[in-house]
Amino acid sequence: MDIKPFVGLGGVLIAVMASEFNDLVTAMALADVRGALGISYDPGTWIQSLYVWAEIVGMAISPWLAVTFTLRRWTLFSIALCGTSGVLIPFCPNVEAIYALRLLQGLAGGLIIPLLMTMAFRVLTPDVRLYGLAVYALTATFMPALATTVTALWTDIGDWHMVFFQAVPLCSLAGVLVWYCVQQDQPKYERFRMMDWRGALLLVVGTGALSTMLYQGDRLDWFNSKMICVLALVSALAIPLLLVNEWFHPLPLLKLQMLGRRNLAYGVLGLLFFLIVSQSGSAVPLRFLQEVQGYRPLQSNLITIEIAALQLLMLPAMALLLNYKQVDSRVVSLVGLGLILASCIGSSFLTVYWNRDQFYLWQLLQAIGQPMVIMPLLMMSTNTVAGPDEGPFASALINTTRGVAEAAGAWFLELISRWRGALHSNRIVDQVGQDRWRVIQSNGVLRQYPAPLTPDGRPRVPGSLEAFGHAVQQQVTILSTSDAFLILGALSVLLMVVVMILPIRAMPPRIHFAKR
Questions:
Q1: Banded model confidence at residue 465, pLDDT cuts 50, 70, 90
Q2: pTM of whole model > 0.85?
């Protein structure tokens, strides 16, 4: 058996690792990076916002371009762009140059990630396809969890420059493997005569407006900002026009007709909800430990490395389990979602006394549940791909949804924090003023006692206002975090309903494709 195609697939996987670290590690280390480069908070928010916009665009167009230029050439170009754009960022003379390079870095990441699924469709036979899907699933579950540890390594132990330089050795190795092990096809430049230029323009404008609105909306006070109003109008016009254009175009970037297949429709919709729940389920504990307990990435990374380590065991185990004809992938998904729901409910009981140790059990349930959801989802959706020609279209649909999920997840957490945080803050402050009571801080817990009055009959407020404000903010963070877990649990229940209604029973690939 020729192992070169599998080695080439490993090269693409390493390139995806580099692009994922460019995204996730930079987002987690953004405060350190801003401090080192002398960038204030507001301009710094665009560093991640621009990356996600370009990443979504790259995910949508990459499969089409890979077929046109050949998979080998396009992968090598994407790898080179990924490594070059990252290594130049620390040397930028101004913030505008950083923005430009982050756009290129995000575009490179978006170009690379769909190529892993495209390559898997090409290389893996039905007998081993499930194990190839497990490799792809690593990028959705393993990499986000591992990113916290990598962030801690560069910011708390090593040098912040490595946040960007880390891509160089990974991209170099990936390029060598792809160069020597991926077969060179004949390019299809004639496809440019049918290029979907109008769709590409609408994609850039629509997704750019949408992702920017989601990332910047909370900071700019949403529709009280003229910029957000304009972005909302642009996205509301451009995205429907994009969908109509893609439906009728003879060679579209996104073949929407494939969503008529129920299992592929479930794959796209389910992946959107799953990524919001899974990535937020790990991000919320980290935010709590940072804001309430003052943890750095080096102190909090153990709760995410637990998830990462278990993925290396659980994903192959799920591939083995789903390879049995008797196993219904929908039931496996429901069990996994039940574990995630239990994790969210258990984590919602957090208090001011919780630290890293209290999250281990609930993150363990997350670590077991996530592979039980993502593997059946990938199997059911990819079984609908009739042949190699449809592989790039399926990859574009699934991965574009993945890019949108990252922006939607960031917006979702900010929405919960703003909405529930304002509610809890108002209630706590109102309670302080009721019945002429006073509030003091004791071991981080707000306690109420009858307040003495001033000579003019007003309650006397003792203690430091600064300490009081800190205590209120601490309680608001705790209550908002608890609400976030409950809302994520509700999303898990909604996804359970989708699993029970939308997809149909799917056989393992070795059986499904043997019938054809």
A1: low
A2: yes
